[in-house]
Amino acid sequence: MIYKFVSTILSKGTKEISRMKMRIRIGILTVIILSLSLSVGCAAAHKKPVTIEKGDYEQPKKYISPFIQKEMEKHNVQGLTIALVDDQQIIWAQGFGYADVSKGIRATPETVYPTGSIAKLFTIIAALQLSEKGKIGLDQPLQTYLPEFSIKTRFPDGGPITPRTIMTHHSGLPSDRLKGIMSRNPIPLTSVVKEIKDEYVAYPPNFIFSYSNLAMRLLGYLVEKVSGQAFASYMDESVLKPIGMANASFRATPEIQPFLSKGYKDGKETKDFLLHDLPSPEGPLYASAIDLCHFIQMIFANGKAGGRTILKPETLAEMLRPQNNGVPLDLDFRIGLGWFLNDFNIKNAGFVASHGGASSLFFSQLIILPERKLGVVVLANSSTALEVVNKVAEEALKSALEAKSGITQPDPEKPVHEPVPPWSQTVLKDYEGHYAIGFRIYTVTRKGERLYTRLMGKPVQLIPYGTGLFSIQYRLFGIIPIKVEQLEGLKLSLTPIGGRDVLVLHDHGKKRLLGEKIEAGPVSEAWLKRVGEYELVDQGDYFPMIEKARLKYEDHLLILDVTTSILAHLGIERLRFAMGPVSDTEAVILGLGRNMGETVQVVTEKGEERLRYSGCEFRKKSE
To answer: Per residue, what are the HEC states of 394-420?
Structure first.
């Protein structure tokens, strides 16, 4: 009887460990990627079955092909296309799975996918072209070209919002405009200026990297107004077609339709949401892997394509130059004009530049090694493909690098666990409290000489690792330590920067901002009376990004708890923001980074008080 009981417990424990590790992977991936704006590479180490000889590209293909098929099967991805570029040659382009399952249409190098935020690189190129012609000054106030643009600020000495600060995601503008972010009908670019005139900036310019789709939409409007052409038309005529991207467009043209992939969720064909907080009011950038290969070739040719100059060499160099070296809160994170510059762990190849893209059903990743003139693009058509496109792109590029130059990647450094003297109760107490990380709030508690928190509903112990550093350990049932590969080598520290207590992620020698310790402040009676459930006021023809909201007062914190289904495929169904009231009618979301620092306002419509956030309005439900 005892043996059977123990066997049953161990069996359940093993299954729970397996399920837990999967949730942990999703949780860690979600926290890091959303905190750093879908820009972080997440490939784990994979042992190659063979040594790749220099000059032999067939070996990477033989290795990567089954790797892709395994990852697609593991994550239920229906279709994927990969392409590798060596300078001006496409050395490999291949489709896997299906672009249209029901019709039996295979994915090919010519299959067209919505590419998500990769489109931002092209919007920036368009603005840089206009800059080369003297029509835009990158460091001039945005109002120079858009005199109708205005937005409220609490930072009167913060400096101007400029095209450059938009390109580097340092404008301080809100991250998104949730009202109208998904709609059945195109929303004109001109509307964005009108919509945000009563909003507040989240930060002063050049204060912190904070990814902003809203800012990039303004840049698209700037391109449209300065060029005198509709945005999609200008992009077709001046950027995409001159590069040689024959099947690429910001419009789903009749010519593109036969090549366009279907989108899938849970293995079933589903209609994708059109995200309108993008530069083009007509849709995302549709492109094939071959199209994006031509784009990479243009980069490697110093801005030339088909004998035509798309960008001057010095402009292209500026695009790839780190722009944020003087921003303390960015720590080791670096960004160029649109390009993320250190997000993938590829060693001994010079600097790495990348940009990914995502919608509800489609994911993409593009990585280049400019000094080695190697690049990769991976496109996929399923809601579960986020991790796949990142892992495949990184692994394929490492293999191509070995084939081209003989450079192999060093083995991952194994963490060295040295004895750590007990930390004083005073030091441990400093780490207790609430932390805003991504779209959630985490609470660290102290029990004796140990610190604890919960991640994805599971207990986590923070273990002193060295001076000011913690490692992270999961414990099954809160007791049994579990080794999780994704946590190996990761450390945390609490560091004061610019008067803020910042939670820093130490990832194999690189420091990244993960969150901020937040302090409870006074909450007026006016705000306390607003605690309760709220319903979304009619949004018209828009798909609701947020279905419902609840205002809470917990642990002396005012918390806005919202429910959303659109991020469920990323493991997020609830967003929790701590708010700091700045008046009886305005509160700022506490924390640093994307969606933090933004303002929740109280407005009155027809005698009814409402909460307004990012254009969405909520009325309190009657009790």
So the answer is: HHHHHHHHHHHHCCCCCCCCCCCCCCC
CATH code of domain 525-620: 2.40.128
Q: What is the pLDDT of residue 487?
A: 63
41 pLDDT band (50/70/90 cuts)?
very low
**Would you say the pTM of this structure is higher than 0.85?**
yes
> According to CATH, where is 3.40.710.10 located in the chain?
58-373+385-405
Amino acid letter, 571: G
CB 246 within 8 A of CB 291: yes
> How many Cα atoms occupy the beta-carbon half-sphere of 588 within 13 Å?
18
How far apart are the C-alpha atoms of 191 and 187, rounded to whole Å? 7
Cα–Cα distance list, 490 to 44, 356, 432, 456, 486 (Å): 13, 23, 20, 18, 8
Residues 6+ apart with CB under 8 A from 439: 34, 572, 575, 576, 577, 595
Residues with Cβ within 8 Å of 445's Cβ and at least 6 positions away in sequence, in order, are 432, 451, 452, 453
User: What's the pLDDT score for residue 607?
Assistant: 85
Strands (E), 320-399: 353-358, 363-369, 374-380
Bridge partners, residue 599, by sequence: 588
Q: What is the pLDDT of residues 501-544, one digit of tens each?
A: 999 988 877 899 989 999 988 899 999 999 999 988 876 655 55
Q: Is 128 helix (H, G, I), strand (E, B) or coil?
A: helix
Pick the CATH number of 1-35+414-518 from 3.90.1150.10, 2.40.128.600, 3.10.129.10, 2.40.370.10: 2.40.128.600
CATH architecture of the domain covering 58-373+385-405:
3-Layer(aba) Sandwich (3.40)
